[in-house]
Amino acid sequence: MSETSAELVERAARVIPGGVNSGRRRTTPPLVVQNARGAYLEDADGQQLVDYYGGAGTAVLGHADPFVTESVASASARGLHAGVGVSLPEIELAEQLTEVIPSADQVLLCNSGSEATAYAVRLARAVTNRPFIVRMEGSYHGWHDAVIPFSPGVVPHVNGLTLTCTYNNLAVLDELFRRYPDRIAGVILEPLVHNCGPTVMPDDGYLKAVRALCDDFGALLIFDEVVTGVRHHLGGVQALWGIHPHLTTMGKALGNGFPIGVVAGPSHLMQQWNTHDDGKAVFAGTFNGNGAAVAAALAVLDRLRDGQAHAHMFRLGEAMRTGLQEVADRAGVQAHATGFGSAFTLWFGPRPRCHLDVRKGDHQLFARYRRTLRTLGHFEKADVDGGRSVISASHTERDIAATLEAAGPALRAALDAGRGES
Ligand SMILES: Cc1ncc(COP(=O)(O)O)c(C=O)c1O
Q1: 2: pLDDT confidence band, cut at 50, 70 and 90?
Q2: Does 208 participate in catalysis according to the annotation?
Q3: Does the structure show a pLDDT above 80 at 421?
Q4: Mean pLDDT, the chain, as a whole number?
Q5: Which of its termini does the chain have fewer beta carbons within 10 Å around, N or C?
């Protein structure tokens, strides 16, 4: 690292604990971003990187998309935040979201994915009058107590209200429902898991069976589509696969870099919020429906509506997965190019069906491979936690080809370094 980055890292660490503003932003070696445009990052040393982290999956159109920036700039000129009542752009965004999300008659806006999942959990508890929430090990739904029960600072009686289950394992979920038949308010899951390194796809029939169990036991199924929503389809994977949850959360790609979260569902549930005369569950937030985020989201929906950008990203995603699998096969290493649509992860281990399989992967090789790739100008976060990579509408076939060309030498170097260590 040059003086410039090293100095900034040191300055950051003096005044920001660990030098980063989220535990999920830690990466080794540290990264100081100077600017992010289209498919590229530039670090403080001037190194250009083809970026596959995409602002933690937010930059579906690419960084600093001019259409989004222009939409936000013109909204800014009109004033971004009266903070009372509603505005025409908020109405238009809600109309468009309810049009594209199959399970939603109504939506509410907040500022992040974590807020959205916190609200969804609250609503499930409010309408069922039950305490327990089921989450899947290996998934991530944000930073709040109900979905991160293991964090220090979560008091034991709150921690005890979250039950942890295994993705793709109906027997474990069935057992939980039988043990607590009238205590489980809801099950929250990523319909396909993008948060544990490799992408974990649902087994055939799994999501339908989870919905049926929830219905049988009077619990709500929450699809956390914070990553999958907009990125894989404007209405989330529920629109692609025809499986409908009771409640849906979205965020990330909808704002293309501007902070937004969405809670969506049928009217009879959504009207339980105290935004409605008949509702009592508290939904509040000074910045909900903020004009910048709403203008960005309207621009994103506009840009993606005709399906061309999705087709482009899915094509590049497929090319990347196919190419990476070939690279790994040529290197003679056990690997699976996992992913879906624009998301991909070259995973060194057995094809994962749940977090237990993820533990069996070669996490060291994963980190070494990605760190080496970075030295060659291609950025994939070298941490299994949050290590999903994404392609944006700004990436080109040339970007993918260049990354695939670098992937072979990076993998060979990572394998050699591993042999050196053992
Ligand atoms: C599936 C999922 N849900 C929720 C969240 C939390 O969103 P945010 O970081 O915007 O609070 C994330 C963040 O990575 C996520 O991946």
Answers
A1: low
A2: no
A3: no
A4: 96
A5: C
Top mutation candidate among 22, 111, 115, 117 for ligand 1, by most atoms within 8 Å of CB: 117
Q: Which domains does the chain have, with CATH numbers?
A: 66-304 (3.40.640.10), 306-421 (3.90.1150.10)
What's the 365 CA to ligand 1 centre distance in angstroms?
Answer: 26
CA distance 35 to 158: 41
pLDDT tens profile 36-71: 999 999 999 999 999 999 999 999 999 999 999 999
Contact (CB, 8 A) for 24 and 56: yes
Catalytic annotation present for 224 = yes
Burial of 275 (0-12, 13-18, 19+ CB in 10 A): middle
Report the nearest-CA residue for atom 15 of ligand 1: 141
Taking the C-alpha atoms of residue 148 and residue 127, their distance in angstroms, rounded to an integer, is: 22
Return the DSSP state at 351. Answer: P
For 422, other C-beta atoms within 10 Å of its C-beta total 5
- Spatial separation of the C-alpha atoms in residues 109 and 86, rounded to whole Å: 11
The Å distance, Cα 115 to ligand 1 centre, comes to 9
- Tens digit of pLDDT for each residue in 362-420? 999 999 999 999 999 999 999 888 789 999 999 999 999 999 999 999 999 999 998 87
Do 47 and 377 form a contact (C-beta atoms < 8 A)? yes
Atom of ligand 1 nearest to the CA of 252: 10
280 included as an active-site residue: no
Tell me how far the alpha carbon of residue 139 lies from the centroid of ligand 1, in angstroms: 10
- Angstrom distance (rounded) from CA 239 to CA 246: 14
251 alpha carbon – ligand 1 mean position (Å): 8
Query: Do 189 and 210 form a contact (C-beta atoms < 8 A)?
Result: yes
Nearest one of 338, 326, 400 to 366, comparing CA atoms: 338
State the Cα–Cα distance between residues 409 and 376, nearest whole angstrom: 9
For the segment 307-353, what is each residue's pLDDT rounded down to a tens digit? 999 999 999 999 999 999 999 999 999 999 999 999 999 999 989 99
